[in-house]
Design brief:
The chain is built from 12 helices and 8 strands. The protein has 323 residues and is α/β, with parallel strands linked by helices. The protein has one domain: Ureohydrolase domain (Arginase, Chain A, 3-Layer(aba) Sandwich), CATH 3.40.800.10. It has an 8-stranded parallel sheet with strand order 2-1-3-8-7-4-5-6, sandwiched between helices. Helix 5 packs parallel to helix 6. The longest helix is centred in the middle third of the chain and has 17 residues, at 103-119. It starts with a helix and ends with a helix.
C-alpha cells in the first residue's frame, strides 16, 4: 500500500457512503502513536465539548454529527478543481477527550493535544464544540509569536466576562487571546457581525486595540469580493488562524446552532468567503458551534462538513509550494 493510497479517503464507489465506520471525510483514523502519525500534514480533530455555552447547549455533539455528514464529501472541489487529498496527507486524528465537569482542565487537554500536533508539524483543522475551543488551540499555536486571524461569525466573542465575572465562555475567547498575546489585534478581522446587543463593550474593545470589525450591513453593501480583499490585506502573508462559527450563516441555511442571528449570508456565500482565503499562510483553522439537537434535517452539519472541506482546500499547498 503506497503513501498516497493510505491517506486517500474511501470512495463512495468502493464502499457505499452509509456503510463503514464514519471518520472525517472517510479519511484514515491516525491517532497519536500511530505508525503513520508523523506523516500527516493536516489533521482533523474533534473537540466534543460545550462547557463555554451560555444559552442553548449541544455543540458537544457536533464532531460526531460532522463526521457522519462528511461521508458525502468527495475528492475534488468542483469550483476550484483542488484535490486536497492528493496535495497533502490528511487524516482523522480522533477527538480530544474533554472533562465535562471541569472547564479549565478541558482547555488544558485541548492545548496539550494541539501542542503534540505542532511538535510533529501537523496543522490542525478543529471541529467543535463551542467557540471557547478556539482559545486553547491558539495557546498551542501561538507560542512563538502572535497570529493574525480571519474570523467569520455573527458575534465578536470579544466580551470581557459573563454573569458577573466569568472569564471563559464562548463569548470571550478572542478577548482572552488578545490579552494573552496569542493574536495580533491589528491583524484580526471579524466578518458578519450582527444581531441585537446588550451594549457595545465588545466593539469598543475592538476599536481600542485595532481589531477590524465588518458588520453584516457593510458586508452586503460592499460585496463579498471587496470585503475579502480587505481581509487578505489585513492579515498579510504572516501566519494566520481561521475561525469559522457556523452562525455566520443565516439560520435559514444553518439552524443547528445555539445562538442563531437572522440576516446572514446564504450557504453559497458561506463557501465563497473560504475560497477567498486561498494563498494565505494558514497555521490552523476551526469550525465551531454546530449543534445537532437544533439540526433536525442535518442540513447544518452537511454545510459544516462542506466548509471543513473548503478549509482543507485553502490549506493545501499549491503546485509550486509542493515542488
Amino acid at each position: 500500500m503506497t503513501e498516497h493510497t493510505f491517506f486517500e479517503p474511501v470512495s463512495g464507489m468502493t464502499l457505499p457512503r452509509f456503510a463503514g465506520v464514519p471518520t472525517f471525510m472517510r479519511l484514515p483514523f491516525v491517532p497519536p502513536g500511530h505508525e503513520r502519525f508523523e506523516q500527516v500534514d493536516v489533521g482533523l480533530i474533534g473537540v466534543p465539548w460545550d462547557g463555554g455555552t451560555t444559552n442553548r447547549p449541544g455543540p458537544r455533539h457536533g464532531p460526531r454529527q460532522l463526521r457522519d455528514a462528511s461521508t458525502m464529501i468527495r475528492a475534488e472541489n468542483a469550483a476550484t478543481r483542488i484535490r486536497p487529498f492528493e496535495r497533502m496527507n490528511c487524516a482523522d486524528l480522533g477527538d480530544v477527550a474533554p472533562n465535562p465537569a471541569d472547564l479549565m482542565d478541558t482547555m488544558q487537554r485541548v492545548t496539550q493535544a494541539i501542542e503534540e500536533l505542532r511538535a510533529h508539524n501537523i496543522r490542525p483543522l478543529t471541529a467543535g464544540g463551542d467557540h471557547l475551543v478556539s482559545l486553547p488551540v491558539l495557546r498551542a499555536l501561538a507560542q512563538d509569536a502572535p497570529l493574525g486571524m480571519v474570523h467569520f461569525d455573527s458575534h465578536t466573542d470579544l466580551f470581557k466576562s459573563y454573569f458577573g465575572g466569568s472569564q471563559y465562555t464562548h463569548g470571550t475567547p478572542f478577548r482572552r487571546a488578545i490579552e494573552e498575546g496569542l493574536l495580533d489585534p491589528k491583524r484580526v478581522v471579524q466578518i458578519g457581525i450582527r444581531g441585537t446587543a446588550y451594549d457595545f463593550e465588545d466593539r469598543d474593545f475592538a476599536k481600542a486595540v485595532g481589531v477590524r470589525v465588518i458588520a453584516i450591513e457593510e458586508f452586503f453593501e460592499r460585496g463579498l469580493e471587496d470585503v475579502m480583499a480587505e481581509a487578505r490585506e489585513i492579515v498579510g502573508s504572516a501566519p494566520t488562524y481561521v475561525s469559522y462559527d457556523i452562525d455566520f450563516v443565516d439560520p435559514a441555511f444553518a439552524p443547528g446552532t445555539g445562538t442563531p442571528e437572522v440576516g446572514g449570508p446564504n450557504s453559497f456565500d458561506a463557501l465563497r468567503v473560504v475560497r477567498a482565503l486561498s494563498g494565505l499562510n494558514i497555521a490552523g483553522a476551526d469550525l465551531v458551534e454546530v449543534s445537532p439537537p437544533f439540526d433536525a434535517t442535518g442540513a447544518t452539519a452537511y454545510l459544516g462538513a462542506t466548509l471543513l472541506f473548503e478549509l482543507l482546500c485553502v490549506m493545501a499547498p499549491s503546485g509550486a509550494e509542493r515542488g
